[in-house]
Amino acid sequence: MFNRLEGKIGLIADSHGKISLMLDAIKTLKDMGAATIIHLGDICDSLKPECLDEAVAILHRYEVKAVLGNNEYILITEYLANHADGFKDIVVSFLKELPYTLNIGDFCFTHSIPFNWPAATNRPLTEYLPRLLENGSPPFKVLFRGHSHSPSVIKIEGGCSKEIGLKSGDKIALDKARIYIVNVGAIEDGAFSLFDPINYEFISLTFRSNP
After folding, report:
1. Rounded to 5 degrees, what angle do the CA atoms 14, 113, 199 make?
2. Which of 12, 18, 50, 85 is 20 to 30 A from residue 177's alpha carbon, by CA?
3. Residue 1: inside a domain, yes or no?
4. Report field, pTM of the whole predicted structure over 0.90
């Protein structure tokens, strides 16, 4: 069971079957010292499930953790019912074991919104932000998410949110007394991220301008 973090955290999301880009990002994050890498969902596009064999093999090889994206949810609920024999057993098991969220200490990792039910994989964050804040403070200090494809850091203060857009190479020192929602960007657009939980620093990265 994955229940603790050690060292820097590499964050990738929304690869949508772009296997070579996903692999480039994983190798880059490893070279930058990431001790853990988490894929925040939409590993492959539900319309092109044939990429899953290779994608899952890479995630296993590099010990990448993952959460359920809306495309994986569609594959589980619709595609597997009629085409389970088209996937290797290890791929079927991988899909069925994906959690909606990973909650580790002060950090939550999810595809879109941090709830353990199906809509959490594809609903926009803005729809649920008031609910997250209605009791004063959500059950996390930093929420890392994909789905939006646009790298940004949202700072929560006094029940209000302020979004900070990011460009490649931007490094932001987070305040441990604040609450943040971090959109890590999409691998299919060449964007990924690195977080240092010790120094509380977040880096937005891009490995090519025209992926």
Report:
1. 75
2. 12
3. no
4. yes
